[in-house]
Write a structure and sequence with these properties.
disordered N terminus, Arc Repressor Mutant, subunit A, single chain, 14 strands, 3-stranded antiparallel beta sheet
Length: 286
């Protein structure tokens, strides 16, 4: 059947996204930090401090599939992640995409650091690095190209920092797309970037599956090319994570066998509910 070539119609204009007067991140308690899973299951915030001065040009970032990442800018590390996490923690009470004010004192205090000259200097350096980079991210549903920080300015009269985060970052905080990181455990792992990366990665899994040492180290952004050295480093990092987790009442253990790492951890209350829902759904299909 042929269509009537004389018929004309006016296409309906569909907005690219719903008009929303306000977008606010999901709230969380002060003792945790909300972080998108895609940034914790990848090497975008790596574990190699020695590479922090490197500059990447449209580089592919190793990540857990099906997510794909490319990045242009200064190579980011776990210290940069601490700053970004803290900005998100403050922004959860603000309207996303809108400028908000904070201060060097507040950002450092929330990270457990003193408001000293060297700490301020490092903070400004990390804010610049977060602003200078461009992330190209593709997930199952969304693609995002932009910065981790849209802009920042300093008001030296009021002693304020003026920050803007991209509205589209809120897409990374959908259901089951972000994780509450226990801040006390992460702080206990200061100066241990690989242990911090592992803590973030494992926090995104209610029941972590076995992963090869090689895959873990690539996702962690490790530049160590020696197999024996990689295993030694990951053992030390996991020992530190086990100690910190157990110290804060979150039992965790691991075993390395055949080049794979097997994890045993206690899921959080929200993860336990997720496991129960999955189990219930599986039974109902039988």
């Amino acid at each position: 059947m042929e269509r009537d070539s004389k018929r004309t119609s006016t296409p309906t204009k569909v907005p690219l996204e719903p008009v929303q007067s306000e977008i606010v991140l999901p709230g969380w308690q002060d003792e945790v930090r909300g972080v998108p899973n895609v940034t914790l299951r990848s090497a975008i915030f790596g574990s190699s401090r020695s590479a922090s001065n490197a500059f990447l040009q449209h580089a592919e970032i190793y990540t857990q599939r099906p997510t794909q990442m490319r990045y242009t800018g200064p190579r980011l590390d776990q210290g940069d992640l601490d700053v970004w996490i803290t900005l998100l923690h403050i922004a959860r009470e603000k309207q996303m995409g809108k400028t908000f004010k904070t201060s060097a004192y507040e950002l450092l205090k929330l990270q457990g650091k003193t408001d000293a000259g060297n700490n301020r200097k490092t903070l400004y350096k990390r804010l610049f690095r977060l602003r200078a980079g461009t992330l190209e991210l593709s997930t199952k549903r969304y693609s995002y190209t932009g910065g981790l920080v849209d802009s920042f300015a300093r008001d030296d009269v009021e002693q304020k920092l003026i920050i803007t985060l991209n509205l589209k970052l809120s897409y990374l905080f959908g259901p089951n797309q972000f994780t509450h990181i226990d801040w006390s455990v992460r702080r206990s792992l200061n100066a241990k970037p690989l242990a911090q990366w592992l803590h973030g990665y494992l926090s995104t899994h209610a029941e972590p599956f076995p992963v090869s040492i090689g895959t873990l180290m690539m996702m962690a952004g490790s530049l160590d090319s020696s197999a024996s050295s990689r295993e030694q480093n990951i053992r030390r990092a996991l020992d530190a994570l086990q100690h910190a987790s157990n110290l804060h009442g979150q039992p965790f253990s691991y075993e390395i066998s055949g080049g794979n790492v097997y994890f045993t951890k206690t899921p959080t209350s929200s993860q336990a509910r997720h496991i129960a829902r999955k189990s219930s759904g599986s039974k109902s299909k039988k």
